[in-house]
Design a protein that fits this description.
12 helices
Length: 308
C-alpha cells in the first residue's frame, strides 16, 4: 500500500439525518426525576443517580433549536481529513503538517466518549507553536485517527479489532504517510493503544505519553499498612478509584459484554445518547462539583454527541 491509497475526505451529514435528529429530539420522552439523596462518597446529589432530567432537557432543547451542526461541520472541514482502508477497515483521520522542517510526527489516539474532535483545538499549538506564544517549543506533524468503529471509521469490518490489531493499523497508517519514526499520545482507550503501538513497532516509536490508566485497577480495599504509607494525594486517588468502582463501573460492564444492546438503545434515541455521554463528561471533568458546561464548550460537546 502507498500514499495513493489515501483519499481526501469532507464531512457532509445528509440533511435528512439532521431533520430526523430534530424530530427525535422534539418527540423525546423525559422520565420523572428520581428523588435525590446524599451518599457516602460525597458526589453531587443532583448527579449521583444519573443525569438530572431538568439539566438534560435544557441541553436537549439547545441541541435541537440552538446548536448549528452545519457551522460546526464547516469548521471541521477546514482541517485536512482523509480516509484509507487497512485490513479491510475504513479509517478516517486528520493530518496536518507543520511548516517547520524538523517537525516531529505525532499520532494522537482518542477514547470514549470522545472522538477526533477533542484534538482539533490542539492542532494549531502543536503544528505552529511559535504562532501560539511558544517560539522555543517543538513543532509536530499531527495525525489523529478515528478509532475503528468510531465516527467516520465505520462500520466495523469484523469483530477482531483488539488493541494489538488497532495498534498495527495505526503504525501502518504512519507508514503510508511517510513517517518512519513518530511519537504517540492517548487518553482513555487511547491510553491503552499508545503503549501498544510502541510494543508492536518498538523501533519506530520515539516516545509515549498517556493521560489515563494503562493497566488494571489496584486490588481494593488496601490494607491499613498500605494506606498509611501513602501521601494525602495518593489517598485521595485511592478514594476516587473506590468511588468509581462503586458508583460508575456499570457502563464498562455493559459496553464490554453487551455492546449490541447498548448500541441499539443509543442509536435509536439521541436523548439516550446525550445522557449516556454527558454523564461521563460531567463525572470526568475536574472539578466534578462544577457544571461541565461551565468548563467545556457546549457546542464542542454537542458536536461530539452528534457524531455518535
Amino acid at each position: 500500500m502507498s500514499a495513493s491509497d489515501i483519499q481526501p475526505f469532507t464531512i457532509h451529514m445528509p440533511q435528512e439525518d439532521l431533520d430526523d435528529l430534530q424530530r427525535r429530539l422534539a418527540a423525546a420522552r423525559h422520565p420523572s426525576p428520581l428523588p435525590q439523596s446524599a451518599n457516602e462518597w460525597g458526589a453531587s446529589s443532583a448527579w449521583d443517580r444519573g443525569v438530572p432530567q431538568d439539566w438534560l432537557a435544557g441541553l436537549a432543547e439547545y441541541w435541537r433549536d440552538g446548536f448549528d451542526w452545519r457551522a460546526y461541520e464547516q469548521r471541521l472541514n477546514a482541517v485536512p481529513q482523509f480516509t484509507t482502508t487497512i485490513g479491510g477497515q475504513p479509517l478516517h483521520f486528520l493530518h496536518v503538517r507543520s511548516e517547520e522542517p524538523d517537525a516531529v510526527p505525532l499520532l494522537l489516539a482518542h477514547g470514549w466518549p470522545g472522538s477526533f474532535l477533542e484534538f482539533v483545538d490542539l492542532i494549531g499549538p502543536l503544528t505552529a507553536p511559535a504562532r501560539h506564544g511558544h517560539p522555543e517549543a517543538v513543532a509536530f506533524d499531527v495525525v489523529v485517527p478515528s478509532a475503528p468503529g468510531f465516527a467516520f471509521s465505520s462500520p466495523l469490518a469484523d469483530g477482531g479489532w483488539d488493541d494489538t490489531r488497532v495498534a498495527r493499523a495505526y503504525a501502518e497508517l504512519m507508514t503510508r504517510l511517510g513517517y518512519e519514526r513518530f511519537g504517540v499520545q492517548g487518553g482513555d482507550y487511547g491510553a491503552g493503544l499508545a503503549p501498544e503501538i510502541a510494543r508492536v513497532v518498538p523501533d519506530r516509536v520515539i516516545g509515549v505519553h498517556v493521560n489515563g490508566t494503562t493497566g488494571p485497577m489496584p486490588a481494593l480495599p488496601l490494607a491499613e499498612e498500605e494506606l498509611a504509607a501513602l501521601t494525602d494525594r495518593e489517598k485521595r486517588a485511592i478514594a476516587d478509584i473506590e468511588a468509581f468502582m462503586w458508583q460508575q463501573f456499570g457502563y464498562i460492564s455493559l459496553q464490554s459484554t453487551r455492546p449490541g444492546l447498548v448500541g441499539t438503545l443509543l442509536t435509536d434515541s439521541p436523548l439516550a445518547q446525550l445522557a449516556w455521554i454527558m454523564d461521563k463528561f460531567q463525572a470526568w471533568t475536574w472539578p466534578v462539583e462544577q457544571d461541565v458546561l461551565e468548563i467545556l464548550d457546549r457546542d464542542l460537546l454537542l458536536a461530539n454527541v452528534s457524531l455518535y
